[in-house]
Amino acid sequence: MLAAVNPCGFALLPAYLSLLVLGDRTSSTSKAVGRALWLSAAMTLGFAGVFATFGLAIAPVASGVQRQLPWFTLALGLALAGIGLLVVAGRQVKLPRIGGAWRSGRPLQASFGSMAGFGAGYAVASLSCTIAPFLAVVVAGFRTESVTVGTALFLAYAAGMGLVVGTVAVATALTSDGLIHRLRRSGRWVPRVSGLLLLVAGSYVAYYGWWELRVLSGGETRDPVIETAAEVQHSLAGMVQAPGAIGWLIGGLALVAVAGAAALRGRRSS
User: Fold this and answer.
1) Residue spans of alpha helices (H) in 58-146
2) Other residues' Cβ atoms within 10 Å of the Cβ of residue 135
3) Would you say residue 230 lies in a domain?
4) Angle at which helices 12-22 and 29-57 pack, to 10 degrees?
5) Is 0.70 topped by the overall pTM?
6) Are 198 and 15 in contact (CB under 8 A)?
7) Regarding predicted confidence, which is higher, 236 or 142?
8) What is the per-residue pLDDT across 123-147, written as a single tens digit (0 to 9) for each?
9) Domain that holds residue 43
């Protein structure tokens, strides 16, 4: 559960929620919640897939690979910040087609594949902070216990990440649905606010990657931006840890129940 708000990648959680809101074209609360759960599953799959690959296949050379990870963190942060800047400016971001021009590509959408890719990026950006406990617990379970124990630990790791991301995504889907209905006239500002969140989150992730590179090269470890963000991250980690897995599960199910009740009430009134 704490992997979702790790120091290296916690800023990517609001970035994910921004992409969720930007790509929301659903017309009902139940569809928005279902979409949030589906995309959260995709993100969790991408996240867990990277850890499975890194933990089992790259563990023998993890220390050497880990020194190169800040470069990816820097690149990912700059890419997200660039997308956010375009959205804030009112531009439509398009994905290029293979062999085609940039303008001929499809608009950026929060699809299952793109969210799985985002989850993989989230994981790689988080590896510097989370790979040590993952290796110590999950991979050690495979090596010292049994395949069954190691698999159970890995599934618990993935489920904890998915539980936090899914619950927050459902809450965002419910909130964004209400905002879109109440702010219909000024609805054009909703994507720009999401773009601003992407810009801020991407900028911080890029800054964190640059700070890691600076520290690895022997530079000063203390940084006011990193220290301020660390305080925020520590508070978020405490909030995530306090309810426990059961509390998050109950909260997520309660939100889904609220969405189901609203959908049922809407059908009856129509």
Assistant:
1) 62-66, 69-88, 112-134, 140-144
2) 16
3) yes
4) 140
5) yes
6) yes
7) 236
8) 888 877 777 777 777 777 777 777 7
9) 2-265
> How many other C-beta atoms lie within 10 A of the C-beta of residue 71?
13
On whether the CB atoms of residues 172 and 179 are closer than 8 A, the answer is no
pLDDT of res. 26:
60
Answer whether 16's CB lies under 8 Å from 165's CB.
yes
Give yes or no for a contact between 131 and 54, defined as CB atoms under 8 angstroms apart: yes
Cα–Cα distance measured from residue 107 to residue 214, given in angstroms and rounded to the nearest whole number: 36
Total domains, the chain: 1
Could you tell me the maximum CA-CA distance found in the chain, to the nearest angstrom? 66
Nearest-angstrom CA–CA distance, 20 and 206: 21
pLDDT higher than threshold 60 for residue 115: yes
In a domain, 259, yes or no: yes
Calculate the dihedral angle through the C-alpha atoms of 182, 88, 35, 16, rounding to the nearest 10 degrees. -120
270 domain residue, yes or no: no
pLDDT tens profile 51-101: 888 777 665 655 566 677 788 888 888 888 888 888 777 766 555 443 444
User: Is 199 within a domain?
Assistant: yes
